Amino acid sequence: MQTRPLKPTDAVLPPATIGILGGGQLGRMMALAGRHMGYRFRVLDPTPDAPAAQVADGQVVAAYDDVDAARRLASQCDLVTYEFENVSAAVADALAETCDVPQGSELLAICQHRVREKSTLAQHGLPVTPFAPISSMGDLDEALERFGERMVVKTCRGGYDGKGQWMVRSREDVEKHAQDWARAMDHHRAAGFDDQPLIAEAYVPFEGELSVIVARNRRGEVRAFPPAENIHKRHILHMSIVPARYPEDVIARAEDIARRVAEALGVIGLIAVEMFVTQGGELLINELAPRPHNSGHYTLDACATSQFEQHVRAICNLPLGDVTLYSPVVMVNVLGQHVKPLLARMSGLPSCVKVHLYGKAEAKRDRKMGHVNIVVDEVARALQWIEASGVWADV
Ligand code: AMP
What we know:
Strand content: 15-25%
CATH topology of the largest domain: D-amino Acid Aminotransferase, Chain A, domain 1
Binding site for ATP: 114, 154, 159-165, 201-204, 209, 232, 286-287
EC number: 6.3.4.18
Number of strands: 17
Organism: Alicyclobacillus acidocaldarius subsp. acidocaldarius (strain ATCC 27009 / DSM 446 / BCRC 14685 / JCM 5260 / KCTC 1825 / NBRC 15652 / NCIMB 11725 / NRRL B-14509 / 104-IA) (Bacillus acidocaldarius)
Mean pLDDT: 94
CATH architecture of the largest domain: 2-Layer Sandwich
Domain ATP-grasp: 118-316
Bound molecules: adenosine monophosphate
Keywords: ATP-binding, Ligase, Nucleotide-binding, Purine biosynthesis
Helix content: 25-40%
């Protein structure tokens, strides 16, 4: 077991054991990529036979905030990583006591809180959506004055896929949601947090959304995957299109911003940078995720190195892999309601349609069950196939 701090040039070599906090699909694809390279994996997740545990050497079945269980995981591993950012400070500290945690806890603390995330980026001169921290109903009134009657209010912690998020279009909306916000503020304080419970953001009438996944290792090497154009439906990522259909200068700026984020925050591992593209071609960072990201699943079939292999390389301090895009590709998510129609067509799928399913037991509506990468010579052909297949008819 590796307990001494690593030097910038040290690499963690196979057959070292990598622990993953969280046993979902991101952990599963990380373990599959790392296993090819000869690493071993252990997973901590409350659900027995979790997607990542199915392809790992072992699982600690426990809640994510179980400090003793985190210590047990760390005692079996050479280094520990995570597949989600809501790792409690107590767990992060417990892991670091006995084990190498290359990503550290500082980046987690930044990405766990929307105000901290946006202020840190702004301090580094990076472009973010205009925002205001909200701790009281009075702050909300001030934000409304500043942003006009179109703004977005979000919980600072714990929101995802549009949960904990309210679109405000008028004074009536403010009145309508006032109780929800008061409840969210109480809930935040009851959970023991003394930072801002909510954030208000100017509504950005964006033309589209781009994300860039960047890797950085301890040697300071930085590599950005080609930007993905993301289409959300009902706040859930539906498709990622690569190459993104934007002018070259927008693409180049998106890559540059993402690289600057990785350097400014001293990232080790991956960081996904989600951005809005305004009608004038301006880029504004909306959100960060310090891990592999749904919008990077296209790399599994279309790039020289996948985001998952890149993550393993970065945390183990190996040289980063080549990020060349071999082919245009469209990634489309398979939610619970898409599984049956997809399986019904499975035996007749063309070979350019690469199916990835995550081994989840129950196909609940809107639950991410898998994704499909359509690897073709032209993005338009992939989009036609998605439409014609009828699998995503509900979207
Ligand atoms: P988030 O949870 O911050 O990633 O937001 C989820 C989705 O809500 C984004 O992908 C956007 O489609 C929309 N959204 C979030 N913030 C804003 C904003 N400030 N202006 C306009 N749309 C937003």
